[in-house]
Amino acid sequence: MSIFPPVLSAPLAGVADVPYRQLLGQHGCPFSFTEMISAKGIVEKNPRTLELLDTSPGEANTGVQLFCSSPDVLHRAAAAMESIGYPLVDLNAGCPKRKVMVQGSGGALLKDPKKLLGCIGAMLDAVDVPVGLKMRSGYNNYDPRDLGSLTSELESAGISYLSIHCRTVEQGFKGKADRSIIEMLSSSLSIPVIASGDVRSPADVMDYIKRGAAGVMVGRALCGDPLWFESLSAALKGEGWRKERQTLKGLKAHLEACSSHLDLMISHHGERRGCIEFRPHLNWYLSGFGGRRLFRERIYSLEDRASVETLLDEVRAAWSAQLGDGSDR
What we know:
By secondary structure, this protein is α/β, with parallel strands linked by helices. The chain has helices at residues 18-26, 39-43, 47-51, 71-84, 98-101, 113-126, 144-157, 180-188, 202-210, 228-236, 248-269, 271-286, 293-299, 305-323; strands spanning 7-9, 32-38, 62-67, 89-93, 131-136, 161-165, 193-196, 215-218.
């Protein structure tokens, strides 16, 4: 599979639902992942888990990411994902959240490489579609020899690609991603290496590509910013990066995307639930602009379309006044 730009949206838990992926696709995202989904929940047919597997009509470029530490459960869940029609199945071995790691899943799998290889092997045995892995550079420290050995075994097992966040599990999202890891892995592996960590701008994307990454995965930078991919495509064509973000024209486009996101949330979830689940997204949309604190406390009481739209009208007026002279420069 070849995509352009060679950038994927990450499987952000609590974020990457159907409306979010629809909106990103409308603005140029070539490939998305579902939220990280419990393989156990799939096998046990948990209604809330199964809801996370929803896709929109025509949504072909979406992969599914699973978390679990049981090879048998992963085998069954992966087979179910292939039968649904997902074009690839991914295993998470990097999530640093405690509620995931206490199950032996996510980043905890890096503490037990044999179990990790067993989990991947079970998934590979279950499906014909590509199987990939998202991992970190280590659990509590990065050792090039250990990482090189483990990734070589994973490649030999048959994974189709490797996504790696260039921090350890214990680092979480603190400190700086060590991009030299991509150089090491891309030179030692024959499968595609997808880079992750501290991706905010085209410069970050191009730096990872120059270091040998076949693709780049972006996560937190997309929260509240579905226009990111449009800006990236323009920048890769030499048109600059974020020239209009702080203009009235840029403000209008940003708030129109926000309103479109609200519409998609309500269409998918219904008005009350859609508005409630939109709250964190709305908080992200308002970040980066002066005066957010004037609106932030109200965000988490919004339960209907009218109240959200009223707040957005006030935000539009306040930000337009801040930008001042009406210029689109």
